[in-house]
Amino acid sequence: MVNILFFAKSRELSGVNSAQITVLSQCTFTNLLENILQQYPSLAVISENIILALNEDYLSKDSDVNLQEGDEIAVIPPISGG
Amino acid sequence: MVNILFFAKSRELSGVNSAQITVLSQCTFTNLLENILQQYPSLAVISENIILALNEDYLSKDSDVNLQEGDEIAVIPPISGG
Amino acid sequence: MENHVEVRENKLDLEKITSTVTSPSCGAVSVFIVYQRNNFDGKRVKTLEYEAYIPMAKKKMFEVCQQIRDKWEVEKIAMEHRIGLVPVTEASIIIAISSPHRKESLEAVQYAIDTVKAIVPVWKKEIYEDESSQWKENKECYWKSS
Amino acid sequence: MENHVEVRENKLDLEKITSTVTSPSCGAVSVFIVYQRNNFDGKRVKTLEYEAYIPMAKKKMFEVCQQIRDKWEVEKIAMEHRIGLVPVTEASIIIAISSPHRKESLEAVQYAIDTVKAIVPVWKKEIYEDESSQWKENKECYWKSS
């Protein structure tokens, strides 16, 4: 189980701020995103426009991901701070 | 007669803030500076390091100068504002 | 070497943020402030709403500080981002940087705002007078598809 | 299009100067502040004394504003220079510039301080703790011989 956080448009689409989900402990970025999209199909409309963060660092889209119990994944739509 | 103003080091050397002096009404920058140095010989030590302003604009060192009664000349050592 | 980073819900205090970077040995302070504009593409903006992934936002702001120190000789860096409802004409971010010489702080503050806009997870929603709203996207954000 | 220029004997008010350049249509404000340092070449500076050829200084500051407007699309410009005794750690000049987009105000504020140092007739005398003193010379001043 990992914690998943949603922000901005991804929060509005998923309808939740955060949740606990089960994902594969070893996978690619693409697998992980697909897995999240299966569990939150409402995110499909912004799926091309999302990056994921793991424990407060951005994941590269071509990276392999190793997840541990209690890790924090964030679904990050394009930012607009400043 | 023109008004002459002294600032910073030129004020300290001349010993006055301002004065009225008689100068040629038509001359070169170099003539005007020489004329001022004759009347205020204490400025000689900074003569290589001075620019003159006429009515609040810098004079170019190679310019001809036309002066009228009541004009304001300023003796301007290197600036250090900001 | 001091980095001050904050994400807060209340009004940003320009005087206070600037004073955190002054020091008797530093002559130059450059400050950059983003104020909220009252219009976008001709639509009147009623208010702005900011949200942040706060711990990650602070972590990335500290990373921006470190990147600046890798590139320029600056003394102190302060950056505060406001979140929540931000009224039009009020500041959403203030960045202040001091350095012994002016070139460094001026270049660093420019790099700072460019990089904050690219990597710090903060989101802005513009709420218009006709009650419509829109999540904005910084052009500096690399995973923006369009 | 507004230019605010002042040469004053009392303390400069950062908040007030910055507020003169904000407007509901301008998102970016860049500010540059010069604070007085407490040392020069290892000598401790006790206090600073500034003097200005005030009417010409203001005239040249307005010329700097105009040069900026010839080069960048900025909204409002404010610059205030303090004269008289300026305690160490207090500001001698504050320049604030607003623009619709940040690049303009950031570049303009850099140009502003560079040009002020080159053409505005203001002089600074550093008075050291050993009672010696020295008139400073900006390296940007073109008629400086050395």
TrEMBL record, chains A, B:
Database matches in CDD domains: Ubl_MoaD
Gene Ontology CC annotation, any one: molybdopterin adenylyltransferase complex
Keyword Nucleotide-binding (UniProt): yes
SUPFAM superfamilies linked: MoaD/ThiS (SSF54285)
Enzyme kind, highest EC tier: transferase
InterPro entries: Beta-grasp_dom_sf, MOCS2A, Mopterin_synth/thiamin_S_b, ThiS/MoaD-like
Gene Ontology annotations of biological process type: Mo-molybdopterin cofactor biosynthetic process
EC number: 2.8.1.12
Pathway: Cofactor biosynthesis; molybdopterin biosynthesis
GO molecular function: molybdopterin synthase activity; nucleotide binding
Keywords: Molybdenum cofactor biosynthesis, Nucleotide-binding, Transferase
Pfam families: ThiS
UniProt protein name: Molybdopterin synthase catalytic subunit
Biological source species: Mytilus galloprovincialis (Mediterranean mussel)
Phylogenetic classification of the source organism: Eukaryota, Metazoa, Spiralia, Lophotrochozoa, Mollusca
UniProtKB/TrEMBL annotation, chains C, D:
Record Gene3D superfamilies: Molybdopterin biosynthesis MoaE subunit
Residues that hold substrate according to the record: H101, R102, K117, K124, K125, E126
Subcellular location(s) per record: Cytoplasm
Pathway recorded for this protein: Cofactor biosynthesis; molybdopterin biosynthesis
Keyword terms of this UniProt record: Cytoplasm, Molybdenum cofactor biosynthesis, Transferase
InterPro entries to which the protein is assigned, alphabetical: MoaE_sf, MOCS2B_euk, Mopterin_biosynth_MoaE
Catalytic reaction annotation: 2 [molybdopterin-synthase sulfur-carrier protein]-C-terminal-Gly-aminoethanethioate + cyclic pyranopterin phosphate + H2O = molybdopterin + 2 [molybdopterin-synthase sulfur-carrier protein]-C-terminal Gly-Gly + 2 H(+)
GO CC entries: molybdopterin synthase complex
Lineage: superkingdom: Eukaryota
Pfam family, one: MoaE
Coiled-coil region list: none
Molecular function terms, GO-annotated: molybdopterin synthase activity
One Gene Ontology biological process: Mo-molybdopterin cofactor biosynthetic process
Enzyme class: transferase
Main subcellular location of this protein, as a coarse class: cytoplasm
Family indicated by similarity: Belongs to the MoaE family. MOCS2B subfamily.
Subunit structure: Heterotetramer; composed of 2 small (MOCS2A) and 2 large (MOCS2B) subunits.
Function: Catalytic subunit of the molybdopterin synthase complex, a complex that catalyzes the conversion of precursor Z into molybdopterin. Acts by mediating the incorporation of 2 sulfur atoms from thiocarboxylated MOCS2A into precursor Z to generate a dithiolene group.
Designated name of the protein: Molybdopterin synthase catalytic subunit
